[in-house]
Amino acid sequence: xxxxxxxxxxxxxxxxxxxxxxxxxxxxxxxxxxxxxxxxxxxxxxxxxxxxxxxxxxxxxxxxxxxxxxxxxxxxxxxxxxxxxxxxxxxxxxxxxxxxxxxxxxxxxxxxxxxxxxxxxxxxxxxxxxxxxxxxxxxxxxxxxxxxxxxxxxxxxxxxxxxxxxxxxxxxxxxx
Length: 176
Fold this sequence. Notes:
This protein is an alpha/beta fold. The chain contains 5 helices and 11 strands. The longest helix is centred in the middle third of the chain and has 11 residues.
């Protein structure tokens, strides 16, 4: 699997960038840390000094699907993100399993329950107003494509409860 880096660090002038070839990174083996320094690190380490989250490269996969964006937040920042996990399948315990994974990544789980629609094929991450970045971080931690990060539906927000900033609706793809 390969991906194309489309947004380099801001310190590279656009004119210089146009003269450079596009960088392709094998996603299964490494994550590009900073286009400016061309450093590559396994596991998605935070960017080096001078290459902050605002200049982090956006990585596109097949069909232009965004596969990664800014690096994960710190564990302390993640602990401030309240996440509800809804089981969108009939597989018993699936939401609890995903909630455990989320908690291991440092997020705070505020609800684990069944979704109103239990025929979800794909897992999606929904966000309330002002919480898109947190939802993207949750999605990255679960390896959910960025195109599955969407604004929260009224039904799922109600099911998740008033304290949830991010809602993970677990689909059948996580049961495999």
